[in-house]
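Chapter summary example.
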Amino acid sequence: MGIMQINRKRSANPPCRSVLILAGLLALALLAGCGGRGGPAIKAQAQSISFAAAPALTLNGSATVSATASSGLAVSYSSATPTVCSVDSASGVVAAIATGACIIAADQPGNSEFSPAPQATQSISVAINPVQTLGFAAAPALAIYGTATVAASASSGLAVSYSSITPAVCAVDAVTGVVTDIAAGACTVAANQAGDGYYFAAPQVTQTLAVAAWPGTLTVPGAPAAVKATAGTLPGSVTVSFTGPASSGGSPITGYSVTSNPAGITAAGTASPLTLTCPSTCAGYSFAVTATNSVGNSTASAPAEVLTRYNVTLRFYEPDTQPNDSIFTGSFTFNSTTGTVSNLAGKLASAVTGPPMLTVPLAYQLSAVADGQGGLLVSAFALNSTNTFSEGGFAPGSPGLYYGYPAAKNPAAGGTGNAYVTIYVNLANPAAALTAAQINRLAYADCTAGGMMGDVCMTGYSGIGTMGGFPVSQTVTQQ
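The structure predicted for these 479 residues follows.
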């Protein structure tokens, strides 16, 4: 009877329908919306993004944009005009590359409580100041037949070139500003900046250095300075550059010699640079330079370790984001004297963020591990910490949950997420092509806001990353 009464009451409302189902015992199910009342609805809250006032931005300069989401969630930035400006996705620091309109986009992908915000943009005009000026630093002391370095800078930030107004008294290196005295008298050096497509040529400025005759007994020269050694262009060679000694001993420098430590490799010449050929490899050697005048040889300079800069590019194939792959581009310094790597840094673009792909700066080299087979696995991070995954490390085989999960806030919702890349450096020859086994040692992870897929970071390694990505190539070229 109770059921019949309910049905009679519902039937008074024509749009209402009910369904009776008997399964063993009689049960009643009412369709949602009976009586004009809808069932419960779950809706993400709307949010919006607003920019603060646009900052001033000049060519080759930087400025910071600031956008906030009404939800309070973290905002990420991207450049809609990459040929005019670039922007750090997290900090909003904008770098002006060319003149024109720089358009910065701000996004907030939302979370379980908020729906994605409509993208907001801000346009900044990149201006130029076409007038530039030059100025010299304080004049250095210049001894007879010795060397000194002048320094001038342009207000535009463009490179300055040098020339000697008094070539009978002194010569100057056009790029470095190293002045070499030839005779007693007044040495006058000019600084110039020719301008470019944005700046007019700067008015020339000059600086005069007084050169006096040697006051006493002639001596051997001082040791050469600014000694640098780098890998040569030919295999098994080293190029050593230097500047002459500040003190010539009162007599013109007649030559220079380079010797290795351990001993056995030498070269001689009258000017920098000098190139040496090693018997098999230059690994483990450092190099010192001595100067010679009419009295004799100087003491040797401090030995210079062989430091060479290399560019590096890694590619990880991403089957789920084709035609985009995850790419790392950067550089590092290789010390072949000690067999170590330093200053690995660059930018990681994980394919899940594109198009356009966002780049994450990796500025901290925090790990270098020997593989026991003549190579180093070197890793650089976005944060000054190796904490990348929830396990606290950055091993490729981890599940890929961001560091601090589940207690820490998801990076995509304003938490702090790390990122890293691991490259392989062949200690015998960093530019050598890698074997398949060495390529399989490469890895990356992007646990920043743009690289998050729910609670999982975008990763790539030989065991197959979180979206199926794996390393396919590494290219190293000497700078």
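To summarize the output: The CA atoms of residues 258 and 289 lie 5 Å apart.
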